[in-house]
Amino acid sequence: MRRRLAGWGAPAAALAACLLWTRAGAETVALVGATVHTVSGPTLENATVVLRDDKIAAVGANLAAPEGARVVSCQGKHVYPGFIAPISALGLVEIGSVRGTVDYAETGDVNPNIRAQVAINPESDLIPVARVNGLTSALIVPRGGELNGTSALIHLDGWTFEDMTIKAPVGLHVQWPAMGINRSRYERRSEEEQKKQREAALATIHKAFDDARAYWKAHDAERQPGIPRHDRDVKWDAMGRALRGEIPVFFQASAINQIQAVLRFVDEQSLKNVVLVDGYDAWRVADELKRRDIAVITGPTLSLPRRSYEPYDQGMSLPARLSAAGVRFCISDGGDGGEASNARNLPYHAAMAAAYGLPHDEALKAITLYPAQILGVADRLGSLEPGKLADLLVADGDPLEITTHVEQVWIAGKSISMENRQTRLFHKYDQRPRGPHARKHDEASASGGSTGSGRH
């Protein structure tokens, strides 16, 4: 009997440690003395945010910290909701030139059954880099073919994809083909080849939606007497919720002829829940988008115009134009695999939109509350309100300003380490040996003889 009990020693210790961690992780924390930017309401001076477990328990000016709470002084600091990347490949790609680390694009043209969340690498070095600039969640989107698959909204912290997933599926993603002819000198396909590929892609999309509708019509008919059972197909199963309008269909479309073609397709298919992704020319049909209540996830504002005859601020002013027209929108960095390593720059895309006509408060909402609303999680994310998940950041100023430092990040009530690969490399190379000239330069700087540090 003693041997049997001894055999349980390690598992019992592990269980006890787990229970202790759970109790420790379920503490109440009060962030006190900060300027709190709720986003959904007024900005509160000398305010307190109370976190309990993974949620916000209270927010208020001159609010006393609850008895027994761990008090974190944020005097002179600013508290904001965590930023939401509404289109991203974070966790799906590490190094674009190393194929084994790229898992966001699937082979084949019709892959509605692909689930982005199961491909996430929780140990990606790009996730902590994005986190330390205030990003707390991201919509992870698969790519490849015409029907890409379904996206998932994840927290940028967790041991497994199950830990990280906030909501899945969020929507079905469709890549709409280019409707025009590319005559640039870099295009190697003939006009005829481009037309054939466009028509083939359109036929693929139409057939996929028609086949999925026929599949679900047959499936629903099985409830009637005398109707045989049909075989299940995971591809068409995955499209059911999108066809019924339970989740949105995200159409990646940029040019005006693409957007107009998408709108015709939406009418043909009677789709009720639609989001436009990129929407570079969306401002040209803003009234129609507003009438249909179609939201736009804009592409990067930190970009040059896509046509030679356009003004330099064409892309930078898109959010302001959509906002003025009353179109629901939020701001992304484009979200393709190449942008994953720069996902931390999301707030600066919002800042650029603010510099080109979008009111500052709207720019902040465009990376917090508005993406939460478009992705269907505004009851859990996007603003600092009691009952919502405790995703927030503490900064020494306006996070849309590049000079501001994000000092703390909290995800689901957990304080996140601000260490990442870039900080480790900085500290490593900051200790590198310096030659005689550099040391003399440092000594001169210390004595006031030079303004340089010698640490370049």
Automatic annotation (TrEMBL):
Coiled coil: none annotated. Keywords: Hydrolase, Signal. Residues 1-26 form the signal peptide. Residues 345-410 form the Amidohydrolase-related domain. Residues 429-456 are annotated as: Disordered. Pfam families: Amidohydro_1. Transmembrane segments: none annotated. One of its GO terms (molecular function) is hydrolase activity, acting on carbon-nitrogen (but not peptide) bonds. This is Amidohydrolase.
